[in-house]
Amino acid sequence: MLKNSKFCIAGAAWLLVLLSGCKPQAETQILTIDDTPKQEEQAESPTYKNKKDSCPRLVQKKVGSTQVLRQDSMTGKSCDYFIYPYIGDTVQASVSDSRISLTLVRPNWHDFANGSYQVSDNGRHVIRLQYDAFGSKPPVMDYVIEIDIQPAVN
Question: Residue 87 belongs to what domain range?
Answer without folding.
Answer: 52-150
